[in-house]
Amino acid sequence: MSVAFVPEKLRSKVEVTPETLQRLLEENDQLIRCIVEYQNKGRAAECVQHQHTLHRNLIYLATIAEASPSPGSEKTADSV
């Protein structure tokens, strides 16, 4: 199961660490490699299963990125 999968009731309690993000990126890399391999072998059912997991991981990463402040968005005392 994906490291990004967290049940709804626990989502607000999960702390996102750099290690978690790195593991997720590594998992996505492996998923992409598996998808390409299965596509080359004509095994569509396996592709779809891995594509769903990859999609879920990417949505999770996008949600984290959206919730994180961008580096230039914080106002300083000089800019106010």
From TrEMBL:
- The lineage's top-level taxon is Eukaryota
Task: Please give one Pfam family short name.
Answer: SSXT
Q: Which residues form the SS18 N-terminal domain?
A: 14-71
Q: Which protein family is it in?
A: Belongs to the SS18 family.
Protein name (database record): SS18-like protein 2
Organism listed in the record: Gekko japonicus (Schlegel's Japanese gecko)
